[in-house]
Structures are given as structure tokens and as C-alpha cells.
């Protein structure tokens, strides 16, 4: 009888060790953040409780914060709708102009593959994460709109130049 309970205990401990190792692997990139968060939550410094309560109180205090939260949610919905719109346009292009779709996808995937080949994965991830974190500010200050406008003008110039050549 003791053997079966010992075996069960060993199996449970092995399963827990396996799950722990798996979780550690999944959270590997967040190690520093988790360690700092753990220190704050365990109040390793005398001022951590005050900092925690200040952050919590500040986030719950003003209706201005609630309004900003509403704006953020609204912007997320708009962004999601834009992405879905682009996605639908892509499938419409696939249905209506399959050759154009094929060439567009071929070009896009070739560019992505070339970038992936030229840039180290970790650095590429750093650039993508940095861009995603900077995107709201870039958008707020009109920088994204400015450069998209410049790109559209250049594409239009190229298309007009090509049309003149064909005439």
C-alpha cells in the first residue's frame, strides 16, 4: 500500500516539475520583469507599499482617466476594424484579381524573407517591439500620416511615369 502512494506522490512531483520547467521556458523573456514585480509585491523596500498604493489609487481616481481609457478602447476598435478591412480587401483582391494578388503576396513575402535574412532575429524582434511601442506616439504626432503621404505621392509619381511611358 505504501508503494502505490509513493508512486503516486512521485508521479505528482514529476508532473509538477515538468509543468514548472515548461512555464519557466515560456516566461524566459519576462524573467527580469517577473523578478522586479516579485520584489515589489513582497515589499523588499520600505517604500514599495506606498508606490503600489499610489499606482492603484491614481489609476482609479479621476474620470479623466476613465475618459482616456474609453478613447484607448475606441482606438483599439478602430485599429481592429482597419486590420479587418485590409484583410477583406486582400481577399477581395484574391477573388477579383488573382494574378495581382499573387504578385503582391509574392513581393510582400520576398521582402519579409529578405529582411529576415539580413537582420538577426533578436534585433528584428527588438525593432518590431520598439516600433509597436512607439506607434501610438508616432501616430498622435502625425509622423505616420506624414510618411504614408510621402510614400503615396512617390507611388503615384511612379504610376504616372509608367502611364506616360506606355502612351
Shape: extended
Poorly predicted parts: none
Tally of helical runs: 7
Q: What is the N-to-C succession of helices and strands?
A: HHHHHHH
Overall pLDDT: 85
Distance between the termini: 93 Å
Kindly estimate the percentage of residues that lie in beta strands according to DSSP.
Answer: under 5%
Count of DSSP strands: 0
Walkthrough of the structure:
This protein is mostly helical. The protein folds into 3 domains: 1-61; 62-106; 119-167. Helix content is 89%, strand content 0%. The protein has 7 helices and no strands. It has helices at 2-26, 31-41, 48-61, 63-96, 98-118, 121-140, 143-166. The longest helix is centred in the middle third of the chain and has 34 residues, at 63-96. It is extended. The model has no long low-confidence stretch (mean pLDDT 85).
In short:
This protein is mostly helical and 167 residues long.
Give the arrangement of secondary structure elements.
Layout: H1 2-26, H2 31-41, H3 48-61, H4 63-96, H5 98-118, H6 121-140, H7 143-166
